[in-house]
Design brief:
The protein is α/β, with parallel strands linked by helices. It has 1 helix and 8 strands. The structure holds copper (II) ion. Copper (II) ion binds next to loops.
């Protein structure tokens, strides 16, 4: 019985330690940071601190934050490994990259 409880606690704690939340600020028409490396299962939150509206939209259409108005945010959890290039639908020169290991 004690063994089972200990094992459960260890699994819970390791899971919590592995899944991280990374914040990317959008400011002055740039993603900060533009290049981010994360692990499978991590979550990225984009926060729009500009007056303009922005998105973070994958070039391969695998994800999109949708339109982020000033002061709003949206989060995406990355469930598989890969390199995901993304851009802003409204300002196509804005570009970023999420590398998921
Ligand atoms: Cu934009």
């Amino acid at each position: 019985m004690r063994f089972a409880i200990t094992l459960c606690a260890a699994m819970f704690m390791s899971g919590a330690a592995w899944a991280e939340v990374i914040t990317i600020d959008i400011k002055s028409f740039k993603y900060n940071a533009a290049d981010v490396t994360i692990s499978v299962g991590d979550t990225v939150i984009w926060v729009n601190q500009d007056r303009a509206r922005h998105t973070a939209t994958a070039r391969d259409s695998s994800f999109s934050t949708g339109t982020l108005k000033t002061g709003t945010s949206n989060e995406i959890t990355f469930a598989s490994a890969g390199t995901f290039e993304y851009f802003c639908k409204f300002h196509r020169k804005m570009a970023g990259r999420i590398i998921v290991n």
